Amino acid sequence: MYKLNCIIIEDEPLAVKILTDYISQVPFLALRGSFKDAILATEYLHEHSPDLIFLDIHLPKLKGMEFLKTLNHPPAVIITTAYHQYAVEGFDLNVCDYLLKPFEFERFLKAVNKANASQKEKIIEKQEQKDFIFVNVQKKKVKVLFADILYIESQREYIKIVTEKNTLISKMSTHEIEALLPAPLFKRIHRSFIVSLNKIDSFTSELVELNGISIPIGRGYREVIERFFV
């Protein structure tokens, strides 16, 4: 599962404890550090690029909003504060969400789900801009061109990527590889199969053929093919 790497910038120990506990309960979040002021966080950001920052507004040395204005390419930011009057300014700076202390876990989860959805959209945009991905094959990262992929098959904890040149086995799920593929070019047509739409030579209501290979269409996926080709 893809994880959002996050950091906390907060000077109240109790608030840090609560955020740390909440983060530990969300499978797609990975806490990489917490900082009691923005100056220390700035030093961290010189060498690291987290996906998400939990940012308090009233910080020593440099206030949260002023710190945010210093970032040229800020990651997703969730403001955490006891002062509601800064909400408008926060949204003007494109923060992902604004959590008013004290906040319950349900409200926290809503905010991080929004950040996660935004990050997935960015990943998809990046994948659509380039024409390849790298996948782990044994102990190497192997470049795979989207244009070469015929189909991808689930094999329990692994996937088989069949291309026009070779076949690769990588330890990941079809859901993980599906998130990395450009949606306009690839579609899941079966619980175990993702196919390249451009490679389909023919199809029926039960299977597609590409490069002489027949791939079954799952019952719940028949509309996928019809939507694109009928």
From TrEMBL:
Keyword Phosphoprotein recorded: yes
In this chain, where does the modification 4-aspartylphosphate occur? 56
HTH LytTR-type domain: from which residue to which, for each copy? 133-230
Q: Does the keyword Phosphoprotein apply?
A: yes
Q: Where does the record place the Response regulatory domain?
A: 5-116
Please give the InterPro entries that the UniProt record associates with this protein.
CheY-like_superfamily (IPR011006), LytR-like (IPR046947), LytTR_DNA-bd_dom (IPR007492), Sig_transdc_resp-reg_receiver (IPR001789)
Sorted keywords for this record are: Phosphoprotein
Q: Which domain of life is it from?
A: Bacteria
- Name of the protein: LytR/AlgR family response regulator transcription factor
The species is: Emticicia soli
